[in-house]
Amino acid sequence: MYSSLSKIFVYILIFFSFFLNFNAHSANQKKLYSRKSISNYFSGIISSNNNNNKLALKYFNNLNHLKNNHDQFNREIVFTLVQTKEISELFSYLKKLRKKNLNFFDANLLLGISYLLEKNYIKSSSYFNSIIQTRKFSNLEKLIAQSLLSYVKVFENRLHDYETELNIISKYYKNFALINNAFISCYLDNKNVDENFLRIINPDTLNFTRYNFFYINFLVSKNRNDEALKVLEKNNDIFNANLLLDQTKSWL
């Protein structure tokens, strides 16, 4: 009973926020307040909460007129597009939003990634920097943006001093910096690749065994198959439970 009342209370709050986000003097007021718009909005939210994301997207697609008037709607449709794996549509949708409507973490993160994939490093950096410089975003969100920004700078300039940036990461996230260091050194194919990967997969220190997969594939890409096999055999018990590594072993 209490659970049902809580859900009703949440829906009532959403209902009021739906109206309060609109400009009362908007020329599109009738369309925004229409019974059909409200019905589609709540049907979309309920479908999303029930993990019926395709149905949620169907309802939300009838509400494109909300995108520049209702921030919560943008969050809802971004989440739904990710869940339905409509990535191209997601990027297209975000790029059409006004800047003032991109004031949430997911939007900046996804646009930064989109422009990174397009090799538009200037725009990509601007979105990651926006996250880093905005006070309301959490330390973890800023850390993710800082990490991606370091990749942007390396992709743009292979001589970029990425280690200096990684060294300023808070001591509470030092392991995160070590993982980043391993992947960036792998991309640059520098002399520290083995050292950096071995540091994070060492069972006597960090023991991040999941990263064995990436290290083994790096070794294979360099035709160092014998070394890759040694890593597999050394950790045979762990890899038997990992389908990706089991498949890798069959290739070797």
The coarse silhouette is: globular
* Low-confidence residue ranges: 12-27
Rounded to an integer in angstroms, the radius of gyration calculated over CA atoms is: 23 Å
Overall pLDDT, averaged? 81
Question: Structural class, from secondary structure content?
Answer: mainly alpha
Number of strands: 0
Distance between the ends? 58 Å
Helix count? 16
- Multimeric state of these chains? single chain
Instruction: Profile the largest sheet.
Output: none
- Number of folding domains? 3
Order of helices and strands: HHHHHHHHHHHHHHHH
Which range does the strand content fall in?
Answer: under 5%
Query: Helix content range of the residues, please?
Result: 55-70%
Describe the protein's architecture and organization.
The protein has 252 residues and is mostly helical. It has 3 domains: 1-93; 104-158, no CATH class; 161-252. The chain has helices spanning 2-20, 29-33, 35-49, 53-60, 71-83, 87-95, 105-117, 121-133, 139-156, 162-167, 174-188, 193-201, 212-221, 225-234, 236-239, 243-251. The radius of gyration is 23 Å and the shape is globular. It comes from marine metagenome.
What's this, in brief?
The protein is mainly α. It is built from 16 helices and no strands.
How does the SSE layout of this entry go?
Elements: H1 2-20, H2 29-33, H3 35-49, H4 53-60, H5 71-83, H6 87-95, H7 105-117, H8 121-133, H9 139-156, H10 162-167, H11 174-188, H12 193-201, H13 212-221, H14 225-234, H15 236-239, H16 243-251
Helix pairs in contact: 3-4, 4-5, 7-8, 7-9, 8-9, 11-12, 13-14
